[in-house]
Amino acid sequence: MKLVVSTPTTVAVEQDDVRHVRAEDRTGAFGIAPGHTNFLTVLKISVLIWRDAQGSEHYVAVRGGVLRVSNGSLVEVATREAVPGTDLARLRAEVLAQMTRNFEAEQSARLGALKLERAAIRRLSRYLRPTTQPFAPPVRSTEAPDS
Predict the structure, then answer these.
(1) What's 84's domain CATH number?
(2) What is the total count of domains within the chain?
(3) Tens of pLDDT along 4-63?
C-alpha cells in the first residue's frame, strides 16, 4: 500500500511499501491492511503508526484530519498538522499535548470572536431601532360628507 499524510502546506509522509496502518477515530483504534475496502473516517488528535515491508514501525502525530482508503492500495490522510517522528513516547507525550493545547486555544479564540460578533450585532440593532414612533399620517374618513 501507499501512505500519504499531507497538511495544507506540505506532504509530511509519502511511503510506498506500507504493510499495515493503525489510526484512531472517535470510536477507537483500527487497522488497515492491503486490500482493505474503501473507507473514509475523521481522525482525532493521535499518533498514526505504520509498518513497512521490512517490518519497521514508523510514526506521525496528526492533529485530527480525514483518512481515506482507496482501492485497498492507497491510504491518504489530510490533516491540519503532522509531525513525523521515530520516538513514539516523545510523540505521544510532547507533540500530542502541544497539538491539544493549540486546538483548545483556537477553539477559545473562535468563541471569543463569536461573542464579539454577537455584541456588535446587538449594538447595531439597538442603534438602528427607532426610539420613537415615526410620524403617522392622519386617518381619512371614508364616509360621504353630509349634504
Answers:
(1) 2.60.15.10
(2) 1
(3) 999 999 999 999 999 999 999 999 999 999 999 999 999 998 899 999 999 999 999 998
Q: Range of 37's domain?
A: 2-104
Contacts 24+ apart (CB under 8 A), 43-49: 43/67, 43/77, 43/79, 45/96, 45/99, 45/100, 45/103, 46/96, 47/88, 47/91, 47/92, 47/96, 48/5, 48/21, 48/22, 48/23, 48/77, 49/21, 49/22, 49/23, 49/88
* Domain presence at residue 58: yes
Residue 63 lies in a domain: yes
Q: Which helix (H) or strand (E) holds 86?
A: none
pTM of the shown model: 0.65
Is the pLDDT at 147 greater than 60? The verdict is no
Bridge partners of 62? 46, 82
- The answer to the question of residue 140 being in a domain is no
Q: Is residue 114 part of a domain?
A: no
